[in-house]
Amino acid sequence: MGIILNRSTSKYYVHEFIPEHNHILHYAECTHMLLSQRTITDVQAFEVQLANDSGLTQKNSFDFFSNQAGGRANIGFTQRDQKNYLRSRRQKKMAHGKVCFLLYYFQKKKLDDPSFFYAVQLDNSEQVTNIFWVDARMRFDYELFGDVITFDTTFATNKEYRPFRVFAGFNQYRGIIIFGAALSYDETIDSFLWLFETFLEAHNLKKPKTIF
Q1: If I label 208, which of 37, 56, 106, 149 is the partner at 20 to 30 A Cα–Cα?
Q2: Where is each MULE transposase domain found (predicted)?
Q3: Can you tell me whether residue 100 is helix, strand or coil?
Q4: Res. 22: pLDDT tops 80
């Protein structure tokens, strides 16, 4: 099929269409990768959650499931499906539990401290992906020592495996100081972009000279 843009009308139109396929629709050995052929059963969901709660990385647990099934083609889902399932489960758990309490705390904090800043990122399904906050002390320290910062993603996760991320730097005594903090539920490029843009917004768009 060929499509052309008509610049005079700013509309696209089909100028050529061949109904017969001139290629194989899909290789048989790859059909298990099709979205329509992939699903996580209730039993598999239990095993995925059990492996996650036991501290296994998603790669190691997926390799284990693959060995059990006799190959990745026999599992019935991909590693991305596994990641999306765990992410969705954590988001739902958070959405129905701690988000309301956390937002209530932040709202109360904002009343007590007008310089307190917080922001929540939602995905297309209105699920929480990031929660970011900055208090008065963080803002004060960043104003003085914010030329050089680091974005630390190596902090230990909590018991629900949600990474705690911090924007940090050093004071005049080489002591570590915090410029911003976040609970992350998503590790996509868009998620990280949102964190950095929100960080700058919280600090009046003042940009650091160096990030390491």
Answers
A1: 106
A2: 148-212
A3: helix
A4: no
pLDDT digits (tens, 9 = 90+) for 76-124: 888 888 887 777 676 555 555 567 777 888 888 988 888 999 999 877 6
106 is written with which tokens? 């932040």
Radius of gyration of the chain (CA): 23
Q: How far apart are CA 52 and CA 55, in angstroms?
A: 5
Total Cβ atoms within 10 A of residue 125: 10
Burial level of 75, CB count in 10 A (0-12/13-18/19+)? buried
Structure tokens at 154: 């190596």
Residue 188 tokens, joined: 């996509």
Sheet holding 117-122, edge to edge: 117-122, 128-134, 176-184, 164-170, 148-152, 210-211
State the amino acid at position 49 in one-letter form: Q
**How far is Cα 95 from Cα 85, in angstroms, rounded to an integer?**
15
Rounded to whole angstroms, how far apart are CA atoms 175 and 177? 6
Selected residue with higher pLDDT from 181 and 47: 181
Q: pTM of the predicted model, to two decimals? A: 0.55
Q: How far is CA 184 from the centre of its chain?
A: 6
Enumerate residues 6+ apart whose C-beta is below 8 A from 178: 138, 141, 166, 167, 168
pLDDT reading at 136 higher than 80: yes
Quote the CA–CA distance of 121 and 94 in Å, as a whole number.
Answer: 13
Contact 54, 17 (CB under 8 A): no
> Mean pLDDT, to the nearest integer, of 1-26?
73
